[in-house]
C-alpha cells in the first residue's frame, strides 16, 4: 500500500467516523518518524571508534545507548514539528503527502508518539548517566533538543544561523558518543567534525538554492547566493583536508607504526572531491540519500573507515 493510498483511507475513515486501518497507520507513523535520518546518528560511534574502544563490550554498549537515545530524540522532534506545521504542509505541493499533513497519522497520535519518543530518549540518557556516573550524555542530549527546538521555532528562518544550528546538531551527535563512553576529544577530531558538518549543511543549502522546490520556500534561503555558499563550501573543505592531513601524518615514521592513517588521506580527499561533484550536480539536498545510494561515496567511506580502524587498532 503506498503512502497516498494510506492517506486517502485515513481521510475516508475520518469522514465516516471509523478508525483508520491499524497496519496503515503504523506504517505511516514509522514513515513520519523518518528512520532514514537515523543514519546521521552514526556519528556517535566516531569518537569511540577513533579512541579504539568499540571492540570493548561496555563502551560499545554505552555508544549504542547514545545512538538509540538520539534516534528517539530525532524522531520525536520530527513528529512534533510535523504537527506544528501540518496546516502549512497541506498547502504545499510536496509536503502535503507527509503522514501527519495527509491525515495518515492523526494529530493526537503524532503528538503522543512524539512526546513519548522524546521522553524515552531522555530516560535512556538519564539511565546511562545514573549507571556510569557520567551525566555529560544527558547534558548533550538536552542541548540537542534545545537547539533543534530553537531551529524549528526561529533559527531556520535566519540566514547563517540556520547553517550553524544544523551543523551544531551534527557536532553534538559526535560529542554524545565520546561523553557516553568517557573518551577524551582531541582538537583534531573536533575541528574535522565541525568542518565536515558545515560542509554537508552548506552543500544542502546550495542544492536547495539551485532547486527552489527542494528548499520548500525556506525563508533563510533568500539571504544566500550560490557564489557565497560555494565559497563557504570551498573554505570548509580546504580547512578540513589540511586538518585531517596534519592529524594523519602526526607521528608517522616513529616507533614503526604502520602508516594506515597516512594512507587514509587518499580516500578522505576522494570522498571530499566526490561530494563536491554531487553538490555541483544539484543532488545534495538530502545528504542521507546520497550516503545510501552513491556507490563511489560509500566505497570511499568504507576505505576510510577501514584504514583509520587499522591505524587505531593495530597502531
UniProtKB/TrEMBL annotation:
Region: Disordered, residue numbers: 1-22
Q: How does it sit in the membrane?
A: Multi-pass membrane protein
- GO-annotated molecular function: glycosyltransferase activity
EC identifiers of the protein: 2.4.2.45
> From the record, what ranges are coiled-coil?
none
What does the UniProt keyword field contain? Glycosyltransferase, Membrane, Transferase, Transmembrane, Transmembrane helix
TM stretches of this protein: 61-80, 100-129, 135-153, 160-179, 185-203, 228-249, 261-277, 297-314
Subcellular location(s) per record: Membrane
Highest taxon above the source species: Bacteria
Span of the signal peptide: none
Main subcellular location: membrane
Under the heading InterPro entries, the entry gives: UbiA_prenyltransferase, UbiA_sf
Q: What is this protein called?
A: Decaprenyl-phosphate phosphoribosyltransferase
Which source organism? Nocardiopsis suaedae
Amino acid at each position: 500500500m503506498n503512502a497516498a493510498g494510506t492517506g486517502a483511507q485515513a481521510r475516508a475513515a475520518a469522514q465516516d467516523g471509523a478508525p483508520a486501518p491499524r497496519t496503515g497507520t503504523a506504517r505511516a507513523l514509522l514513515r513520519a518518524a523518518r528512520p532514514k535520518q537515523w543514519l546521521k546518528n552514526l556519528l556517535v560511534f566516531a569518537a569511540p571508534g577513533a579512541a579504539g574502544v568499540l571492540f570493548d563490550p561496555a563502551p560499545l554498549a554505552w555508544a549504542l545507548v547514545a545512538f538509540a537515545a538520539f534516534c528517539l530524540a530525532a524522531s520525536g522532534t520530527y513528529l512534533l514539528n510535523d504537527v506544528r506545521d501540518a496546516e502549512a504542509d497541506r498547502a504545499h505541493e510536496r509536503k502535503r503527502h507527509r503522514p501527519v499533513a495527509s491525515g495518515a497519522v492523526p494529530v493526537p497520535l503524532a503528538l503522543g508518539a512524539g512526546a513519548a519518543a522524546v521522553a524515552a530518549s531522555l530516560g535512556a540518557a538519564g539511565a546511562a548517566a545514573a549507571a556510569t556516573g557520567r551525566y555529560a550524555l544527558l547534558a548533550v542530549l538536552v542541548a540537542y533538543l534545545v537547539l533543534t527546538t530553537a531551529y524549528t521555532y526561529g533559527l531556520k528562518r535566519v540566514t547563517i544561523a540556520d547553517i550553524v544550528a544544523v551543523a551544531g546538531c551534527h557536532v553534538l551527535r559526535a560529542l554524545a558518543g565520546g561523553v557516553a563512553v568517557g573518551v577524551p576529544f582531541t582538537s583534531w577530531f573536533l575541528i574535522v567534525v565541525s568542518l565536515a558538518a558545515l560542509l554537508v549543511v552548506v552543500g544542502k543549502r546550495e542544492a536547495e538554492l539551485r532547486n527552489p522546490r527542494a528548499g520548500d520556500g525556506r525563508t533563510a534561503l533568500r539571504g544566500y547566493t550560490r557564489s557565497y555558499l560555494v565559497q563557504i563550501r570551498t573554505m570548509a573543505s580546504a580547512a578540513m583536508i589540511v586538518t585531517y592531513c596534519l592529524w594523519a601524518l602526526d607521528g608517522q615514521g616513529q616507533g614503526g607504526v604502520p602508516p594506515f592513517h597516512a594512507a587514509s588521506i587518499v580516500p578522505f580527499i576522494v570522498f571530499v572531491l566526490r561530494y563536491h561533484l554531487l553538490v555541483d550536480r544539484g543532488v545534495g539536498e538530502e545528504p542521507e540519500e546520497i550516503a545510501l545510494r552513491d556507490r563511489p561515496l560509500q566505497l570511499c567511506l568504507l576505505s576510510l573507515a577501514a584504514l583509520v580502524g587499522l591505524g587505531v587498532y593495530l597502531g
